Amino acid sequence: MRRFLADSLPDAGQLVVLSAERSHHLLRVTGIGPGESVELFDGKGVCCRAELVDLDEGLARLRVHERLDPAPTPASVHLMVAQTRATVMDTVVRMATELGVEAVSVVHSERCVAKGNKRDRWLRIAESAAAQSGRAAVPTIRGPQPLMLALQSVTGPRIICVPGVPSSRVAGEGITILLGPEGGFSEAEVASAIRCGWEPVGLGSTVLRADTAAVAAVVQYGQVKSS
Predict the structure, then answer these.
(1) For the chain, what is the domain count?
(2) Is residue 227 part of a domain?
(3) What is the pLDDT of residue 111?
(4) Which of 137, 163, 200, 208 might form a disulfide with 212, Cβ 3.0–4.6 angstroms?
(5) Which residues pair with 145 in a beta bridge?
(6) Which of 14, 33, 68 corresponds to the end of one domain?
(7) Which residues of the chain have pLDDT under 50?
(8) pTM
(9) For the segment 22-70, what is each residue's pLDDT rounded down to a tens digit?
(10) Is the residue at 93 inside a domain?
(11) 26: containing domain
């Protein structure tokens, strides 16, 4: 069943109207017609089955039939990643969402080549990936902030991925995983992270691309369950 994001979901029997952009996707891109059923989710953990009733000035109106049990909630993982080139960053956000991370934060480090706050774009990618992957909640997407500020703002279990460092057994609920840009973190940045309580960990014996490293880190240290 095709899935679409709605700003909010009413009770069974009531109508919900999608935004212009989401109506266009449902009607023109996907080709859903009156009488067809779809799954709606609000991005906060609620999902339901609904039927397309008609259009209201070009906007899709759907009647909610029943609430659905959401997929099992994965372990709470916060992925913090240094901004990479646009295409790589898009892939990181998409795959992290598919894997079930709770939040993605972007940081700026010494070797970041890409700049600019593209949070709106990353959020749209996360929303699309959540719809595709069956998630009921869209991860929180936080725009760029300086690395040092990020290092000092996180509490709880936290690790920084450093090439050449042995893998660790660190994992668990509420963990924050920090990944560098294409050129990696500088030695000074790694030292600063350690002073702030971050544990350096490795991702194996090979050098990984930034997007591959994101997947490897979330799976290896986040204990994320497939839903």
Answers:
(1) 2
(2) no
(3) 93
(4) 208
(5) 107
(6) 68
(7) 224-227
(8) 0.87
(9) 999 999 999 999 999 999 999 999 999 999 999 989 999 999 999 998 7
(10) yes
(11) 3-68
